[in-house]
Each structure stands twice: as structure tokens, then as C-alpha cells.
Predict the 3D structure of the following.
Amino acid sequence: MSTAFAPGKCILFGEHAVVYGHPAVAVSIDSGVEITIEESEDWEINNQYNTDGYEKFNPDKHPHIQHIIRDLFNYEGKPLRINVQSNLFSGAGLGSSAALSNAMGAALHQFTKPGKEIDLIKLSKIGHSAEAATQEGRASPTDSAASSLGGCVVVSGERIDTLEHVFDTSLVTPEGKRSWSIHHAELHENINQSWLVLGFTGQSSPTGKMVSGVAERLKQNHELYEEMKSIENITIAGLTALKAGNLEAVGMAMNSCHEKLKILGVSNELLDLMVSATRSHSFGSKLTGAGGGGCMVALTDNPTRVAQEIELCGGKPLISKFGSSGVYIKKKKNKL
Ligand code: MEV
């Protein structure tokens, strides 16, 4: 038996633009996905949403898991019983599918090579490949890198000399080959005096559909490429503020980023409502992730008040500190 946990993520700046090589800043959050696998007579899966407990594993219903087992690990061992537990809202822009892929990759690694240290870079690439396979070939490595490495990651089409470089990766997308550099950013200690409050609209929104929507709009309106460039400038300003511990400036950059995401056509009425309702008790707020529903995020020193505002709008709040640890194998408990 082996168990692994992988955190979800929150994109602070640069979602969508990062698919085209512009920089994005993402942090891991406290909530995530835990997967336990063990040998069984048949292929079975359980997640907390199945009221009937374990059911027959259907690859079409679990494409990320199937891609990891079959294409990436070429696993040909005995059937597995897979238990998935998540405390992330799913389809909500919090990287639940990347966390699922990372937790599955880590659990299968531990299961097939017990005790051998996990290569986090390889795991990030596995997670990215699983994301791309289910997003019509358009996916940046942001979600999988934030979930596997933990902390604050900066993903960019070019190396950023002022940051610690971790690895490079690439992908052949429908628009051609794209490459990204993944960096680690050290945040100022002031940031620990604030919280991220995520607000789920209750509307699940498939990332693949949102990313293809942006690709379509870019084809029809080339001026949107300029908006992507402005998102890049906002991202750089936001990152500078994060490193300097200037919460007001981080918040201002978040507000500006939301306006640009609206122009890209990925916000909606409820997201806009929750974003504006939370502004008076936060440094800044914006939609986070793919949009079209999903989640918004506010940066605040008053998380309870912001969570209340989200509830008053009809959303579900989730409070998190910044940059928890990345994926890890859970140790077996010793029997007493
Ligand atoms: C999804 O969490 C973030 C997007 O930028 C897509 C991606 O980076 O693959 C919308």
C-alpha cells in the first residue's frame, strides 16, 4: 500500500497568458488531494463523492489517472484499488487535476519503487503531460509545478535571472512547440501576515474549454495579444511586490490582473460580484485559474470577514496560508 498527498494551487498572476509563454506566479495552498493505492483482485476506485464506496475503475471517467498508469508508468502489475480523497473544490481552478496527477504519480512511484526518493521535476513533468492530454494539448506546467514543488513558483517562457531556476520543460501544442522555465521565488516574511481566501462560485468550469475559448478569441482579435503583454507587466509588478512584502502593491496588481482577465473573456457575473464584494476587506482580489466560474481569490489580513462576504454572495470560502509544502509520501503508521 502507498499513500501520497499533493496540494492544490492558487494562481496570483498570469493565468491564460502563461499558456502563451508569458510569466505566471502561483502558490501551493493548504488543501489538496490524497491518494492511497493497494493491490486488489480487480481495478477499483473510490472517491469521497461516491456514496456507494468503491466502483469499477473506468478509464474514461479518470483520464489523468489512466494516463499516468498506462502511458507514463507502463504499469503492468496486479490490478489496483485506488482511494482518492480531496478537500479541494473540483473544476474550480484550484489545480485539483494537477494535484490528482501528482498524488497518483507519487503514490505509484512509491508503490513500484518503494523507498526510492521521488524526483519532483520528473513528477511535475508527468503531471503536466497528464494535464495537456486532457486539455486538447494546451496546458502550461504551472499547476503541476506548484503542486509538486510547493511554495511559490514562477513559470515563464524565458528564464528569469533574478529567480532560482528549477527546470525547463516544453510541449507541442496546436499552435506549435512551447517551452517554459520553472523558477522558485522566495517571498518576503510580511506575506506570512496575510491569508488567501478562495471563493468558489459553485460553478465548475473545465480548464480545457476555457483555454480553447481564449485561443479562439485570440485568432479572431489580434489586439488581445496586447492584453497578454499587459498581463505580463502586471505579473512582474506583482512578483516584485511579493518579494518586497508590499501587500498593498500585491493587491493592486491582483485588481489590475482581474480587469485584464475580464477583457480576455474569462470572468463572469458571479466572479465579478465576489471580487468586488471582497475588495473592501482585502488588499486585492481577482478570479484565479481558468475562470468561467470556478474560484476567485482575495489577499487579506481579515480572512473571516472576507469569507463572510463570499458566503453572502452565495459562494463557498476556503482560507489558506501561502505556499504550503509540495507533494509528499505519507508514512505508514506503526501498528501498536
Ligand atoms: C489553469 O489553472 C491555468 C491556465 O492558465 C491554464 C494553464 O496554465 O494550463 C488557465
About this structure: Residues 224-244 form the longest helix (21 residues). The radius of gyration is 19 Å. The chain has a mean pLDDT of 93.
